[in-house]
Structure formats: C-alpha cells, structure tokens
Specification:
Elements (H helix, E strand, L loop, with lengths): L6 E9 L3 E5 L5 E5 L12 E8 L5 E4 L10 E10 L2 E5 L6 E4 L12 E9 L4 E5 L18 E9 L3 E6 L3 E6 L12 E9 L5 E4 L4 H18 L3 E2 L7 H8 L3 H13 L3 E4 L2 E4 L3
Helix pairs in contact: 1-3
Length: 278
C-alpha cells in the first residue's frame, strides 16, 4: 500500500505528454510530471517518489526530497503565518502547516522549530506539531546499556541537551560529556548510558573504552590524511584545541593515538603524529 508523506517505489502504468502515471494502489494513479520523469522511463519501470498533497490538495508524486517525512522529527523554518497557523519550509513547493492548536508556543516567521510531521486522519492532510511530548512513547524504554541509537537533538537544558531517541523516547546528554557542536534538529548517532529506575535515560555520544577508540580511529586517520599525512596535535596539546579540532576529549584522543600506533597506522614525532605510509 502506498503511503502519503513517505517515499514509495511505484510502477509506471502509462506515459503521456504530461508525464508518467504511477500505480499507487488505493490512492489511484498518480501523475509524475515530465520534469521529474527519468530519461529511460518506460511502462513497467519502477520509480522512487514522495507522495503528498499539492497546493490544490491533490495527491501527487514527486522526486523532490523533503527535509523529513511523516512520523519524523525535524527542525524547520517558518516561512509565513496567517489565520490558519504557521507554515514551514520543508523542501517542497507546498509549505507544511502547523495549526495553532498544534503549536507549543506561538510561532514566528524566520525562526526554526523542532516539529513532528504527521498525517491528520480527519483531513488526510500532512501537518506538523511542536507539541512533542504527545508523540513520545508512554511505555518504558527497553534499551540495554551502550545500545547504539539515533538521536534528534531537542532543547538545551541546565544539564545539557534533551534528545529524542529513535523517534520514540526522551533522553539527556550531559554538558561535560559533549565534545562537538550540537543544534536543535541535528540527527546524530548516540549510545544508551543508562536507563534510570524512574525511567529517565542518560545518553552518551561515544562508547566507553575500546569501543570509543574504534569509533574515533577512522576520524583521526582521516584528519591526518587531510593534512598531508601529518597533524601537529600531540600529548601536550591543549585539551580545548583537541576538542575544537576533533570534537573529542583529550583522553579519547590519547587512547586512540596509542591504539593506532600499536597497530602500525601512525608514528609519533616530537611535534605531532604522522601516518605510517606517508
């Protein structure tokens, strides 16, 4: 079954001077305008398209890519506000509506807001909401320590950043464990540090010990390679300099350097580190 607000791979059933018609099952045959039709398209071809309602409220297909799809969170910019609500730029010709009753606080033109995109079952229209709590799972999270998860960064707090875990649960990243710039709406990989007895979840951007070293090794090697095989960073470098350039703590940096040296990937010199084959 084809889904509104999501990507669908649909077969071509007819080609006309207007474009290709795709079989979307219960949604009928959808026109893919000529400007989106691949050059080698023919009847029977399958095309990956996004389905949504256009400015005339017709269900249409497009190969244009929105910034997010239904049931996802995204940070989007308000392009206009009128009596219906706020309209967000989400990368398609028709902006995404946030009705007034779906606004956590009154939205302003030009500002970004973290929202959840959903299909209004009463109207079959795609809309968004900044009332995020109602989309968070009420059931206790079933995560294991150091599970790898996808995080959507939400609001800043006194302790750090709230983040949405796998589009399902709230978690917290603590300031003293953040070594890279974060912004609302950014999607990053994280790890479950612990699930507390009260159900609250602590997060980390890196795994401990050996896992952390493995995670960072490729980034450090890429950094050295990008600088002609040599980096002036070393064990006496300022921790803040390491954090600013590489986005990790000095402890992680030193552990990774030691691991790469043992594995014959780099050599340590008085004023920096060098790739072994440079």
């Amino acid at each position: 079954m084809a889904s509104i607000g999501k990507y669908n791979t649909l077969p071509v059933v007819a080609i006309t001077d207007k474009g290709a018609y795709l079989n979307a099952n219960e949604l009928g045959e959808l026109l893919l305008p000529n400007r989106f039709v691949p050059e080698d398209c023919q009847i029977g071809s399958e095309i990956k398209v996004f389905i949504y309602a256009d400015t005339a409220d017709r269900i249409v297909a497009t190969t244009e890519k929105p910034f997010a799809e239904v049931d996802q969170f995204a940070s989007l910019k308000v392009s206009q506000v009128n009596k219906m609500g706020a309209f967000l730029d989400w990368g398609l010709p028709k902006d995404l509506l946030v009705p007034y009753n779906q606004q956590h606080s009154e939205m302003e033109v030009g500002k970004y807001y973290l929202v959840r995109i959903f299909l209004d079952l009463k109207t079959d229209r795609l809309v968004a909401s900044s009332k995020l709590d109602k989309f968070i799972d009420i059931w206790p999270a079933d995560y294991q320590k150091w599970d790898k998860v996808t995080l959507t960064i939400a609001s800043k707090t006194d302790l750090g950043f709230k983040a949405i875990i796998n589009d399902l649960h709230w978690g917290l990243l603590y300031d003293n464990e953040i070594f890279k710039p974060l912004r609302t709406g950014k999607k990053i990989t994280g790890y479950i540090k612990q699930v507390r007895e009260d159900g609250r979840i602590d997060l980390s951007l890196t795994r401990p010990g050996e896992g952390k070293v493995k995670d960072f090794s490729e980034k450090l090697l890429a950094h050295i390679a990008e600088h002609d095989g040599f980096s002036p960073l070393h064990d006496k470098s300022d921790p803040e300099l390491i954090k600013r350039i590489l986005g990790v703590s000095k402890k992680t940096f030193k552990a990774t350097v030691g691991n790469l040296m043992k594995n014959g990937k780099i050599t340590i010199e008085a004023n920096g580190i060098r790739l072994k084959d440079s």
